[in-house]
Every structure is written in structure tokens, then in C-alpha cells.
Amino acid sequence: MKRLLPIVFVALLLPGPVLAVSDPSEMLPNPAQEKRAEALGSRLRCLVCQNESIEDSDASLARELRHILREHVAAGESDAEITRWMVARYGGFIRLEPAFNATTAMLWCMPVLALLFGLGIAVWSYRRASRRAAPAPALDAAEQARLDALLRGGSVER
Amino acid sequence: MSGGDTSARKPGGASPAQTRRRVLALLPFGVAAAAGGGFWAMLSRMRTGGFDPHDIHAPALNRTVPDFALPGLDAAHPGFSGNDLRHIDRPVLVNFFASWCIPCVAEAPLLGRVAALLPVWGVAYENKPSDAAGFVSQTGAPFARVALDGSGRTAIDWGVSGVPESFLVRPGGIIDWHLAGALTETVVSATLPALLSRIGR
Amino acid sequence: MHGTVLLSLILSPELGRFALAFACCLAGAQTVLPLWGAWRGRTALMASARPLAWGQFAALLLSFCCLAAASVANDFSVRNIAENSAVAKPLLYKLTGIWGNHEGSILLWALILALCGVAVARFGRNLPGSLLARVLGVLGGTALGFELFCLLTSDPFDRLWPAPPDGQGMNPLLQDPGLAFHPPILYTGYVGFAVPFAFAVAALLEGRVDAAWGRWVRPWTVAAWSFLSCGIALGSWWSYYVLGWGGYWFWDPVENASLLPWLTGTALLHSAIVVEKREALKIWCVLLAIGTFSLSLSGTFLVRSGILNSVHSFANDPTRGVFILGLLALLIGGALLLFGLRVHLLQAGGLFAPFSREGGLVLNNILLCSICAVVLTGTMYPPFAALLLGQAISVGKPFFDSTAVPMAMPLLATMAIGPMLPWKRARLTPVLQRLWWASLLALLAWAVAAFGVSGTLPVLAAGFAVWVIAGAVADLASRILLFRAPLRDSAARARHLSRAVLGAAIAHAGVGVTVLGLVGMSQAQHAIVSVHPGDGVDLAGMRWTLRSVRDADGPNYHAHVATIDVTRNGRLIAELHPSRRVFPLQHQTTTEVAIRTDLVSDLYAVLGDEHEADGTVVLRLHRNPLAPWIWLGGLLMAIGGFLSLSDRRVRVGAPMRARRGAVPAVPAPAAE
């Protein structure tokens, strides 16, 4: 997969908006910490943009929050502590992944609920359909004997 | 799911099984109707201003102001700290502004009218001191005090996400009210006086 | 010059508005007359549906041409043109920019809807008269709603006096081929699902769903689904090459609005097969047909209403939102109410064992609809929580990545097995025997992935993706009895393999290819560096050297273009030219991403800030393995869909079943 086969050269130069090329000086020197900061930052919403994380946004508020985040990470705080710090100032809205509490319980349980509901309906309608199908009439002794003989592969005895 | 009811329908009322099936069949309609009702409520409240889907509901209300201490602009506009706000004896409006922010320029006259009701203390958000001074002198904004928050850190502690934003702080340093946006006529003529009379001026 | 002026005089905005109003009248007639005729059994009224559909389409086409003429002729007295176009805009973007704003896009919606009506009128000639009349009637009603919305609240032909000398619409950001062609393809997908919707409502009105109905619905569903898949893939690809940090899907509410009908549309596609072959799953199929179009309509509403927090938000006007909401209430509410009241008329179909192809398709539906429910809940939770509880909750990418994506794993697992199951009742052993080498390949893929790929979900997905692709190949191999019959027989069978079967296998393989692309992208390596010209950086086993940054000016911009050499072991692999453009007139800066692809992986470079103080330049470099496969897979899905459409047996509707027990002349399906 590392070998590149230069089959097609397609240099696509197409316009785009100014983007959040983070300054490398923003990044923490310790790569493990930087990775943790990026992961945590991608779960925090940029409040002035619509639907971007602070890692992806180039707004000044996002840049400031990135700095603060990295300071806290370098200081050794845990993810939960940093998130609490952010939420204390901006409320739950800053979390792109909502906390699990009574309000968001239905949201988080929806995968299981939906699957159970779907399976439940399927099972219920299958049972209803098989109940509706007329049961096969019972065989009397002679018919049962004929059936057994046929199944064994022998000829039918008259 | 394979099917409807093929049995002959009774001439009288429906059987309980049939009623159950009828209710289940109308469930999608019910869910859609509830969702539709919800959207209608959202739209009508958006028009009257009671519902703003972009409101972040920052949790600053009824909390003590954060700890901070910021330098002032000049002798006429000294800085202030969290401690200062905790020891005020009358309500104060804390207004976050910046020279590069157009709505801040637009709300300056309204700030002037607010200053007649209560002191207005400004915080220059991510502004160089000279630019902030220029803003204050050009717009005639009536700040009794101006704190310089060049880095924006203090604003983050307040839960500010942009400028302009205003906070009403009552004696004891408790944040009584927060507006994320520029002052409007309604706020100046109706909301603020009502809040002030509730606090007891 | 004179020709353009003459053209714009004839195709004037007033003519356009008149044509739109005329189309409204025709749509109204198309709704009322055929439905009344079908109810009362009046043949003449039912037959009026087809000419009315043609007339409506002609009127809308005229209206659209008038708008296009105004755009090309730079008629800035038309408010829409003044706001969205400019003299200096290239001709291509003047034309494609018609649908780049709210009013124009609604007109395009209506036009495509009318086109669907014409397609049904033309290709549905062998449908029974009353069904055709009802289908066209429902389509007419939907079109009427959109045309009224356009005429009354979003009139593209509004005049502006005095006419400004130039328009405001010269935004360089929006002048991009991907952005130009993404809307029509996407809208064709959204609007195309109106046809299965109309079929479902017509079936409920008639009180009957049978195998023939399933056969008629299927080609329209496949067509709409193929366009929607294409549209979604195109949108994702566009954000990848424009936005500059290698992202391609953000679970943005507008993106979710396109994914939801795709999920239920896939379920519908498969359910229609079961209705056709076994006359089972009727209720679910009808509900899915109504649901899919409802989701695409609701998506259109939500995106334009201002209720959602999205980067893509259109003109947010709550007043318009109320009109669309009313339209939705009529169409969706009406259809679902009809469903609730009339569904008991649909007769039960064949019984089937849980482990059978029908059972597999039921499981497929449950999984797809559950994923749809999760995405729908996540998208709608914030506004409803704000409305009902006053709390601001935000649901973003991390939530969907941790809930919806893992739910796709069972779906992938069953995708390889499903096509091999016989109808009615299946046994596991023969199926597994046919899949033994596919299972081996999947296990091998898991083993390789466990070493080379980081993250549990990507490893799982890699194995499943190989399983799906191998399963599709195994399906075809078992149909042509490869290695079980003489090769000549296999070759003959391969030649006669129905295109529907081939198309389905290609589409399934396409899903696997896309998932492999996603797994590859999850392993992307990137670096953000600050370098002097002449410096190099090591990334992904290659050396990326910044050779120079030079000035290059365009007609209305000033640009800095960087040249980056990518070498491995001294051998030049690629030369990348990312750049930044400053448009002084518009006070905007854009960045141009440089991508070099060999269809297996992408080299991706972005030019960032230049620090004049120390002469360093910020570069963002990516190596994205298997990234092109994400969109190639989407293309394969669409190809598979279109291929199966070209199969005549899928398109030709079966003749109507005779009333009393006579054996219908349905063409015998071969080994399907």
C-alpha cells in the first residue's frame, strides 16, 4: 500500500475558503500530548462557527480555546477535568458529544431502542402471520404410515 | 411485515385486535404530527423572538463574577477586577467591546442612554490599548471604567463567545442578566429598567 | 449581441412568471382531474393526466429558460440575478448559479418534479389506467405545492427598480465545477423519490398492492437512489478538495438531511424486490416509500428554515419555513393518514421462514432504519431540547461516529450472505459452502488489518469490507457455476447473466470499496510544519521539500504559489503547487489545495500563513491512503444502479393480473 503507482497525475487546484491551518507553533512539543489535545479539541464545539470543532475552525475564539486546552493538557489535567472547565464557562453546548444524563438518555439509547423496536415488530408480525396460516390437518394412522414409507424412499404399499 | 386483516370484518364494533392494529397503523401519522407541531412551535417562536436555535445558553447567570484583574486604559478610564465587582453597591453593566467590531460601534449611542440608568464598565476584548482608546473617544462610549483584555482569557472565563456582549452585575458580584449580542431599543427602554427595579436599584 | 438581446426580450422575466403561473394551473388540473376520474371510473378524465403532465413540464421548462436568459443577458433588473450574478462572472457559472440560491433551487426542484411526471407518463404507458392516473395525480399535487411556494414566497422573477449596473454575485468561493453540478444531481435524487411516494399513495387509494406494483416501483426507486448516491458522493468529494484539512464528512445537519432518505431509500429498494417476488413486506414497502420522500421533503424544509445549526444554511426565513411546513403537513400528513386508514386493505402475502432471503431483507431493513432513526434523533435533538427543555445541547461528529458507524458493521456482515439465500426457506450450510473462500479472504484481511491498521473499528470494518466485496464476487461465481461446471458453460452463463444481478453485485461491491476507503482515510498521516524554502520534511516514508514560493497574479487576484517536491529514495514522485489567492475587491482570501492522486492514495498539500519576519512558510501536508476509493465506491454504487436499470426486465412493468384466477403472463424470472 506504500508503493505509489503513478498512473494518473491529477493536480487539482481549486478554490477554497481560508482554512484553519494551525500554526505549528500552536502544537505541543510532546506528540502524545498533542494527539490527546487534538482528540479532546475535536470534541469541543467552536461557538462562533456553525458545527465545527475548535480544531477545525480558524475563528479567534477557537484559536484561544485551543491554546487554553493545550495549556491544560500540558499541565496534566484529565480529559474530564478539562471538559468540566469548558462546560463551566460555556455550558453543555460546547460539547459536540453530549454528556449522558437524564436529558440525553433517549439520544444515547436510541441505537438499542431502534433495533429492539424493529426486531419486536418483525417478530410480532411473523408470529401473527404464522398463527393466521391454517395448521396442516392431522394425519391418521394409515396416512402417517404412507408418509413414513415415502420418506424412507421405499415404494408405496397399497 | 406481511399483511393486513383478511378475516371478514364484523358488522358491529371492531375487535380489540383490530383496534390495536388500527392504532399501530396510525402511529407513523401520530409521530409525524407531533414533529410537525414541534416545528410549527419553533417557527412561530422564532418570529416572535422567543426561540433562538443558535442560542448557546451560557451558564453565567446567578453566578459570582470570575476572578480577574485587568489594567485600565488611562487615568480617566481605570481598570477593574473581580474583587471590585464583588464590592459594588449598585448594579453595574459590564460591556465587552472591540474597536474592530461594527455592531459595537452601532450600539454606542444606546450605551449612552444606559449610562443614565447605571454605571457602564467596558472590557476591551482582544484590542491594542491605542485602538481601544480610539474607539472610546470616537464613539463617545460612556465607560466609567475600561479594562483591557488583550488575550481574551478573561472573556473566556465570563463565557463570552463574541462581541458585543453585556452582563448586568448586581451588588455582591452576582451576574443577574446576560445579553449575547448588541443592545436593542427594547432592552434599553424596557428590559433593563425592569431588571433594575427588581434588584431594588 | 443582438441575438442575446432579442432572446432576452422574448424570454422575458414576465413570460417566465406567467409560465410558472400557467404551470401551477396545469398542476392543479393534473391533481384534480385524474384523481377524480380514477375515483369515478371516468376514462377520459384519467387519460387527461398524461397531456397535462407534458404541458406542465413544457411551461416550467419555459420558465426556467427565461431565468437562464435573464442571467446570461445580465438583466440586473431581476432581483435574483442582481443578488447572485455579476457581469464578470464566467458564462458557465452564470448558468449553473441559477440553482445556487434559494429561489432558483426551488424552481429547479419543481422542474425536476415535472420531468419525473413526464417520465412516468412516457414510460408508464403499460400501467393500468387508474393507477397511472392516480400516480400522476399525486405527482401533480406535489408539483402544485412547490410551484405555489415558488410563485408566492420565492419568486425568482421579482423585479428591482432602479436596476443596478452590476450584480453582487461575484463570489469566487462559489465558482467551482463541483459546486455547480452537485445540486442538480442531488435534487434529482431527492425529487426522484416522489415517484415511489406517488405509487405508494396511489396503491393506498386503490386499496391494492401486488407483485406488479412492486415491479413498477422498483426502477423508479433504483433511479432516484442512484442519483442520490452520486449526489452525496459528489458533495463529500467537493468538501474534501475544497476545505483543506482532508475532511469529507462532518455529520453536519444538512449532510444528515441527505443521508436519511438515502438510508430508507436503500431499504425501500430492497423491499420492492420482495414485494415483486413474493408479495410480502407490502406494508413496510409502502411505509418506506412514503417515509423516504417525507425525509427528503423535511430535509429541504429544515435546511431553509433556520432551525438547524449548519455551515450550509440557506436563506433563513421563518416565514418561508411556515409555508413549507404547511406543504409538508398536507403531503406527508395526508399520506400517513391515508396509510393509517387504508393499510388494512393490503392483503397478506407469502409466509417465509426467518432464515431466508425475505428474512435477510427484513434484517437489512431493520438495520438501515435503525441507523436512520439514530441519525434523525441526533440531528433533531438540539432544536427539540431547546424548545421543550430550554437546554442547549449540541450533537456533533463524535456522537455519530460512536453510534451510527458501529451499527453499520452488522449490515456489512449480512450483505454478503443475503443475496445467496433462497426465497422462503434457507439452510445455512449450502450458503456457507459457497462463501468459504470469501470468509478466508475476510479473515486474512482482518489479520493484515490487525497489524497494519490502528483502531478497533477500522480493523473490523476492513475485514467486513473485504467480506462484502468477496461475497459479491462469490455470488456471481456461484450463479455461473464457476469451477463446478465446464468453463464453457460458465462463460455462456456469464454472458447471459442478467444486468439486474450484475448491477446489484457491482453496487454491493461499491459499498465495500467505500468502506475500505474510509478505513484507509482513518489511517491518514498529516504534518503541520513551518519551513524555509529549501527545507524538507519527512512524512509517510517520503521527503516533502518546499522548493519555492513565488508570486503569480490572476485577473482579479494576487496569488502566492508554492512548489513542493515529493520524493522517495531520491526519485521524484510528485510536484505539488498549493497556493493562496487574495481577492482585493472582495476582501477575501482563498486557498487552493494541491492533490495528487493515483487512485490508490492521495498526496495533499495546503499552503498556510507566510511569516515575513523569519521567512518561514506554514505547510499542511497529508498522505491519505485509499481516499479516492471512498468516492470510487460511490460511483460504483451508482453504476450498479444504472446498470440494473438498463435491464429490460426491471423496467418493463408486468401486465395487470387478470381479475379471476387466470395465470398472469409474468415473464418467468431466471435464477434470481
UniProtKB/TrEMBL annotation, chain A:
Coiled coil regions, renumbered to chain: none
Database matches in Gene3D superfamilies: Cytochrome C biogenesis protein (1.10.8.640)
UniProt keyword terms in alphabetical order: Cytochrome c-type biogenesis, Heme, Iron, Membrane, Metal-binding, Signal, Transmembrane, Transmembrane helix
Keyword Transmembrane helix: yes
One Pfam entry name: CcmH
Residues covered by the CcmH/CycL/Ccl2/NrfF N-terminal domain: 9-151
CDD domains in alphabetical order: CcmH_N
Transmembrane segments: 105-126
Signal peptide: 1-20
Keyword Signal in record: yes
Protein family membership: Belongs to the CcmH/CycL/Ccl2/NrfF family.
Function: Possible subunit of a heme lyase.
UniProt xrefs under PANTHER family: CYTOCHROME C-TYPE BIOGENESIS PROTEIN CCMH
The protein, known as: Cytochrome c-type biogenesis protein
The organism of origin for this protein: Endosaccharibacter trunci
Automatic annotation (TrEMBL), chain B:
Keywords: Cytochrome c-type biogenesis, Disulfide bond, Membrane, Redox-active center, Transmembrane, Transmembrane helix
First-listed, main subcellular location of the protein, grouped into a coarse class: other
InterPro entries documented for this protein: AhpC/TSA, Thioredoxin-like_sf, Thioredoxin_domain, Thioredoxin_ResA/DsbE_sf
A Pfam entry, by short name: AhpC-TSA
Coiled coil location: none
Entry-linked Gene3D superfamilies: Glutaredoxin
Compartments where located: Cell envelope
Parts of the chain that traverse the membrane: 23-43
Annotated Thioredoxin domain residues: 59-197
Lipid metabolism is among the record's keywords: no
Name of the protein: Thioredoxin domain-containing protein
Lineage: Bacteria, Pseudomonadati, Pseudomonadota, Alphaproteobacteria, Acetobacterales
Automatic annotation (TrEMBL), chain C:
Residue spans crossing the bilayer: 20-39, 51-73, 106-124, 131-154, 185-205, 217-239, 259-276, 283-302, 322-341, 362-384, 404-423, 435-453, 459-481, 501-521, 626-646
InterPro entries in the record: CcmF_C, Cyt_c_assembly, Cyt_c_biogenesis, Cyt_c_biogenesis_CcmF
Gene Ontology terms, MF aspect: lyase activity
Keywords: Cell inner membrane, Cell membrane, Cytochrome c-type biogenesis, Lyase, Membrane, Transmembrane, Transmembrane helix
Domain Cytochrome c-type biogenesis protein CcmF C-terminal: start-end pairs: 325-648
Keyword tRNA-binding among record annotations: no
Function: Required for the biogenesis of c-type cytochromes. Possible subunit of a heme lyase.
Record family assignment: Belongs to the CcmF/CycK/Ccl1/NrfE/CcsA family.
PANTHER family: CYTOCHROME C ASSEMBLY PROTEIN-RELATED, CYTOCHROME C-TYPE BIOGENESIS PROTEIN CCMF
Name the record gives this protein: Heme lyase CcmF/NrfE family subunit
Species name: Endosaccharibacter trunci
